[in-house]
């Protein structure tokens, strides 16, 4: 809701961003500090959960150690990673002969014998055991820890991404005669309609690769590409943090015109650190580095991409709402497997955040997961509202980031709902199923209560200046 003078100056070609809210810099730095503490705290928690299981042994859930030779797939389910027949099950043919068959080569419709992850007897036992464990540990640190980890990281990524985007939004576009390199690309309605389609094509392509092709080289190339993107995101995030600390953009050392990048010393230092992290990740697939890269990717995404209008953000939310539901709930009857879960578990790259839950019988951590899309997609919408808040603050029509704060409350409630339903039904849930209605309805209700529905709907970010403009009354 900019002033009329703002609009007229923009029409003349001048750039006049809204006034930067007081205390924004301090808030951003505090949030980065809190994020670092949260990451380190839960990394320590995950480390303390580990315990070594002797070679050739398997630890049952009651703590009893048994020899892998005595592993009973009827009682304990699929063979674990430390077992020589991991990824296989024993098949008995009509003549009584036994042979080992890879699970990925099993008939898609069953019936599934012991040792197969979809063996009905095993699934029934696992379901009963999970429900019993959930009831017993529901209000203990062991039971609450992964959910608190998920909630804290997701909340901080969206909230911090929104605040940092406002910092860039309220900067002047020109610094020392140079065009700012981190001006977000703004998505239009036409691009928003394609989001679920392109997402579906990419998701199904990954599913086919990981489910049927099984080429280790292709998997390595995909993982390496994603890690490369996350490594660069980490490097540029380091540069952005330094800029906030210094309260100005660092001097550009050189440009990469092909990618419209202007690199500074902090950017280069960050990328150098990112290279070391990437090499370590490709070697060990460490979950802590996975989360560092995933967080960097989310924050950079919210910094470099934005929506031009409220309507654009709503289209993306609704489109990916349908996308998420189909690929989690509707894909198994069509393709024989849950496509979303297959890709999330199969792609060994930072496409999700991982939260240590417990130890398996081999002494390895097991994880809950949250896809990066469940952070970035609502984050784009919430970031737009944070910029709207900045406009309201600039013209004294608000005293706080009211849209951002209300939406963050409802975003958190949506994640709590997702976790609760997931634990109750013991099944993966499409987080956007709960996030989209919570966030979308909360923002619309708030605009209605404040009498700003029309002005919010008409508010648009200009791609040339990246400054908001209020549509003329019709």
Explain this structure to me?
This protein is mainly alpha-helical. The protein has two domains: 4-50 and 138-469, no CATH class; 57-135, no CATH class. Helix content is 60%, strand content 11%. It is built from 15 helices and 14 strands. It has helices at 4-11, 24-49, 73-76, 120-137, 141-169, 189-213, 216-246, 265-284, 287-304, 310-335, 339-346, 373-394, 402-425, 432-449, 453-458; strands spanning 57-59, 65-67, 88-92, 98-102, 174-175, 178-179, 185-187, 252-256, 261-264, 305-307, 352-359, 365-371, 460-461, 468-469. A two-stranded antiparallel sheet has the order 1-2. It has a two-stranded antiparallel ribbon with strand order 3-4. The longest helix has 31 residues, at 216-246. The two termini are 15 Å apart.
């Amino acid at each position: 809701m900019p002033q009329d003078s703002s609009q007229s100056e923009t029409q003349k070609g001048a750039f006049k961003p809204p006034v930067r809210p007081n205390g924004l810099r301090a808030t951003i730095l505090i949030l980065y500090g809190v994020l670092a503490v949260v990451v380190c705290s839960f990394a320590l928690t995950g480390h303390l959960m580990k315990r070594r299981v002797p070679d050739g042994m398997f630890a049952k859930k009651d703590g009893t150690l048994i020899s892998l030779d005595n592993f009973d797939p009827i009682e304990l389910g699929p063979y674990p990673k430390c077992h020589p027949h991991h990824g296989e099950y024993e098949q008995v043919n009509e003549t009584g002969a036994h042979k080992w068959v890879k699970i990925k080569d099993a008939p898609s419709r069953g019936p599934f014998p012991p040792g197969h992850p979809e063996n009905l007897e095993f699934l029934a036992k696992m379901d009963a055991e999970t429900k019993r464990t959930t009831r017993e540990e529901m209000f203990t640190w062991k039971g609450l820890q992964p959910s608190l980890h998920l909630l804290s990281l997701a909340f901080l990524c969206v909230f911090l991404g929104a605040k940092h985007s406002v910092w860039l939004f309220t900067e002047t576009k020109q610094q020392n005669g140079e065009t700012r390199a981190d001006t977000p690309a703004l998505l239009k309605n036409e691009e928003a309609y394609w989001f679920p389609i392109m997402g579906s094509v990419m998701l199904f392509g990954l599913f086919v690769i990981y489910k049927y092709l099984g080429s280790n080289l292709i998997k390595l190339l995909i993982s390496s590409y994603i890690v490369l993107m996350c490594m660069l995101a980490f490097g540029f995030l380091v540069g952005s943090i330094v800029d906030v600390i210094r309260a100005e953009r660092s001097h550009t050392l050189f440009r990469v015109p092909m990618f419209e990048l202007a690199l500074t010393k902090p950017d280069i230092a960050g990328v150098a650190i990112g290279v070391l992290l990437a090499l370590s990740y490709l070697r060990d697939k460490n979950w802590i580095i996975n989360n560092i890269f995933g967080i960097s990717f989310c924050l950079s995404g919210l910094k470099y991409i934005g929506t031009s209008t409220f309507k654009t953000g709503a289209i993306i939310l609704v489109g990916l709402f349908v996308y998420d539901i189909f690929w989690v709930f509707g894909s198994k009857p069509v393709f024989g497997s849950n496509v979303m879960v297959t890709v999330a578990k199969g792609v060994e790259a930072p496409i999700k955040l991982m939260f240590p839950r417990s130890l398996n019988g081999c002494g390895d951590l097991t994880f809950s997961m949250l896809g990066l899309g469940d952070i970035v997609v609502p984050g784009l919408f919430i970031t737009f509202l944070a910029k709207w808040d900045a406009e309201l603050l600039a013209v004294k029509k608000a005293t706080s980031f009211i849209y951002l704060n209300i939406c963050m409350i409802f975003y958190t409630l949506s994640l709590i709902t997702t976790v609760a339903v997931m634990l109750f039904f013991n099944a993966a849930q499409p987080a956007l199923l709960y996030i989209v209605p919570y966030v979308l309805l909360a923002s619309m209700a708030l605009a209605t209560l404040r009498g700003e529905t029309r002005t919010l709907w008409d508010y648009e970010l200009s791609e040339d200046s990246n400054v908001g403009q209020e549509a003329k009354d019709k």
